[in-house]
Amino acid sequence: MPRTSNTTPRLRARPLTTPFHVVLVEPEIPPNTGNVARLCAATSSPLHLVGKLGFRIDEHSVRRAGVDYWHLVDVRQHVDFAHFVHAFQKDSPNGRLHLFSAVTEKSYLATSFQPGDALVFGRESVGLPDDLLEQYKESVIGIPTLGAVRSLNLANAVGIALFEAHRACGALGDTFLG
């Protein structure tokens, strides 16, 4: 099959009027955050980076990492989770938090997603802090795995959750070439 050019129409869907928010709490691995940023650009979703990052996101660092779509992402930084929650409630007053963890009994497939909700993910090495999971225990959901792996890659988990949220609220049903 021949490669397509940049002018070849691609399969598209219309962005939501009220987007989902993707939240990474203290991400550690630059390529994962870069992949998540690409997902956010592809879905018109704001990307919230919370707490201490394991890398720099200044223009030089992003360009050096080969992330050529960073300018398409609405990146918002917050010093801690409390500051994120405050900003999120102002921006999306009806939005709910969905905290993703591998240590929960509730599947993301049993969750009702609504535009404006925030999908919250933790560090690659340890996930979300226990105190945060306890504070928001009614909002903790997970992606079940079928094999014996400890957890999914962060960017893969965000992709699964973000596109399921879009699918569940009908955002992917009206597609077109554009």
From TrEMBL:
It catalyses: cytidine(34) in tRNA + S-adenosyl-L-methionine = 2'-O-methylcytidine(34) in tRNA + S-adenosyl-L-homocysteine + H(+); 5-carboxymethylaminomethyluridine(34) in tRNA(Leu) + S-adenosyl-L-methionine = 5-carboxymethylaminomethyl-2'-O-methyluridine(34) in tRNA(Leu) + S-adenosyl-L-homocysteine + H(+). InterPro entries: Alpha/beta_knot_MTases, SpoU_MeTrfase, TrmL, tRNA_m1G_MTases_N. Its main location: cytoplasm. It comes from the Bacteria. Residues 20-163 form the tRNA/rRNA methyltransferase SpoU type domain. SUPFAM superfamilies: alpha/beta knot (SSF75217). This is Putative tRNA (cytidine(34)-2'-O)-methyltransferase. It comes from Labilithrix luteola.
